[in-house]
Write a structure and sequence with these properties.
Distance between the termini: 42 Å
Structural class: mainly beta
Strand order of the largest sheet: 3-2-6-9-10-5-4
Order of helices and strands: HEEEEEHEHEEEEEE
Number of strands: 12
Largest sheet: 7 strands, antiparallel
Strand content: 35-45%
Length: 161
């Protein structure tokens, strides 16, 4: 006999998901009025043919409308020594790009020059689900920028593998 499973409360869900290690990235775009970017760990590849990636971003994020207006974005993969940068791009009310060297690829979206690598994407779709948007991008450029261990996030803290 199957018993019905009920959705978990937000606090319990957050507590359980903290145990899942993820890579740390910065998603960024520029719609013409300056770059916007945010730290995120909800990034993954979707498909090789065509090359697609996705990330989830809070619907209230100040970066999301910039990505939507620009129609493109870049995701920089952070290195283990870039925890301060991850914290900076997660902090509210700071100029996240101040003093940061950025480069661009095909779309003109900002890529952090000292990141381990990046994907540069055209926005394919965005689906509002819950309190986030699931953003899908077609990869039009990608590259490795330096050989370094990745920054990971698990159990409420940063580390490396």
């Amino acid at each position: 006999m199957l018993r019905q499973i009920r959705p978990v409360q937000a606090g319990r869900f957050r507590s359980v998901m903290r145990g899942f290690a993820t890579g740390v990235t910065v998603a960024a775009a520029d719609a013409g009025s300056g770059p916007a970017g945010t730290t995120m760990n909800s990034f993954t590849s979707v498909s090789l043919e065509p090359p697609l990636v996705l990330f989830c971003i809070g619907s209230g994020s100040r970066t999301w409308p910039v990505v939507e207006r620009a129609g493109c974005f870049a995701v920089s993969f952070l290195c283990a020594d870039q925890e301060p940068l991850a914290r900076r791009f997660a902090a509210p009310g700071v100029d996240r790009f101040a003093g940061q060297e950025v480069v661009t690829a095909a779309t003109g979206s900002p890529v952090l020059a000292e990141a381990a690598g990046f994907v540069d994407c055209r926005l394919v779709d965005a689906i509002g689900l819950g309190d986030h948007h699931v953003v899908v991008g077609l990869v039009v450029a990608a590259g490795r920028l330096r050989d370094a261990k990745p920054l990971v996030f698990a159990d409420g803290g940063y580390g490396s593998v």
